[in-house]
Amino acid sequence: MADDAASSSTCTGNLVDNSINQDELIMKQQREIEKEISESIPLVGEIEPLSSLEKEYNEDPIYLLKVKDLSAKYKHIRRTRPDVYGSCLKSW
């Protein structure tokens, strides 16, 4: 029984150190990833002609109709940095 209690802080094949807060390690890794992304991808990109969307989605007729509608009002676009978490609707 004492051996069972002593082994409760280990996983099969992997040692788990209970003195390290796993949540803190995860949050630290998340901050490092966010920093790397923010340093390599601008929050708001350069001005591009709206025609760049036509070239990008030339095989999607529905999207091309939307681009045509946008071109009646706008000449340019600016792309934004993708969402780091995979869901821009996620609320913190």
What are the salient characteristics of this protein?
alpha+beta, 92 residues
Describe the protein.
By secondary structure, this protein is an alpha+beta fold. It is 45% helix and 16% strand. The two termini are 43 Å apart.
Computed structural class: alpha+beta
Morphology call: elongated
Which percent range describes the beta-strand content? 15-25%
Enumerate how many helices there are, as a single number: 4
**Strand runs, count:** 4
> In which order are the strands of the major sheet placed?
1-2
Average of pLDDT: 79
Order of helices and strands: HEEHEHHE
Sheet with the most strands? Answer: 2 strands, antiparallel
For the CA atoms, what is the radius of gyration?
24 Å
Ranges with pLDDT <50 over ≥5 residues? 5-10
Head-to-tail CA distance between termini: 43 Å
Approximately how much helix is present in the residues?
Answer: 40-55%
Please give a quick description of this structure:
Pfam families: Peptidase_C65. This protein has 92 residues and is of the alpha+beta class.
Secondary structure layout plus pairing:
Blueprint lengths: L1 H5 L3 E2 L2 E2 L6 H19 L3 E6 L1 H6 L4 H11 L4 E5 L12
Antiparallel strand pairs: 1-2, 3-4
